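Input record, target 12 of the design panel.
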């Protein structure tokens, strides 16, 4: 494959695991892209997509654990996973800092995901040659 045909992707996931195919389709795309020599700048979770970063997800044993699969993929490939702070806070997803800030009883952000603002998304769109959205659908 010619070097000029390789891309640096940012993936944006807006659909929640178990209620949409967005996280599953995005993971398949991410694996295929890396296998073809492309790179991933980061994965940005927005809207209900932030549920993918919850450490409290416990699917039945006969179902895939999409948050755990995404966490392993991000760690194995050194790809940043970013949950939008506004979307995360609205949906009860907090890291240590937000737990302390809002005096909440616990945090539930799954590592290696981090919480950040839309500035991360803007930076990603500038750094990537392609931004691909994975929506929940209608």
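The sequence produced for target 12 reads:
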């Amino acid at each position: 494959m010619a070097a000029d045909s390789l891309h640096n992707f940012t993936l944006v996931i807006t659909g929640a695991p178990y209620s949409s195919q967005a996280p599953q389709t995005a993971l398949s795309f991410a694996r295929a892209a890396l296998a073809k020599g492309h790179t991933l700048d980061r994965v940005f979770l927005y809207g209900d997509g932030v549920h993918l970063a919850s450490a409290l997800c416990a699917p039945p044993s006969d179902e895939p654990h999409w948050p755990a699969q995404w966490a392993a993929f991000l760690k194995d490939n050194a790809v940043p996973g970013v949950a939008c702070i506004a979307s995360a806070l609205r949906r009860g997803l907090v890291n240590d800092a937000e737990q302390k800030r809002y005096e909440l009883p616990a945090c539930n952000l799954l590592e290696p995901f981090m919480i950040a603002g839309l500035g991360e998304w803007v930076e990603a769109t500038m750094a990537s040659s392609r931004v691909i959205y994975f929506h929940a659908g209608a």
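The CA atoms of residues 7 and 38 lie 5 Å apart.
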